[in-house]
Amino acid sequence: MNAITILIRFFDIILSLVGLFLTLPVLLVILVLGFFDTGSPIFRQQRVGRDKKPFTLVKFRTMRIDTANVASHLANRSSITGLGQFLRRTKFDELPQLWNVLKGEMSLVGPRPCLFNQDDLISEREQRGVFNVRPGITGLAQVNHIDMSTPQLLAETDAEMIQNHTLKNYFRYVIYTALGNGAGDRVK
Predict the structure, then answer these.
(1) Which pTM was predicted?
(2) Is the pLDDT assigned to residue 69 strictly greater than 80?
(3) Contact residues for 22 (Cβ-Cβ < 8 A; gap 6+)
(4) 73 pLDDT band (50/70/90 cuts)?
């Protein structure tokens, strides 16, 4: 493990703890609203982690419970609830992932974790060594509005981010995302 990896893990721990603490009131309000919206406000899904190991990603639910277990860009827009639209627009649906970061399953910055059924993306990422790092909440692709609907471009962008992974870029992507730049996966 090199010095930059250790520093990034240190900042992941500190920033996720601070983020969870500061957003606790917001998390609780969304949790209560989510019970009224779908009856099940927390969304858990198996995703591909570092070294292609599975982990359970945690988010606030933005789609109806009966929505197919597919990548967001393959889901139908009508599946998104009213609260879900707000959560996606503000990126508040991502806040529970700070728990994944704290546990070491994710980093704040890294390639967005894909589903195990996204064969094209997995293949493209394998060719480029993308699975050698922790997946992240945000990164170069997200701040450039590149989502999982373009597997080759996403994998190329992820590889570029990994090759240029510095503390400066880490904080740049975190700040850009916190200021509202970037986008989640689109929904058809």
Answers:
(1) 0.90
(2) no
(3) none
(4) low
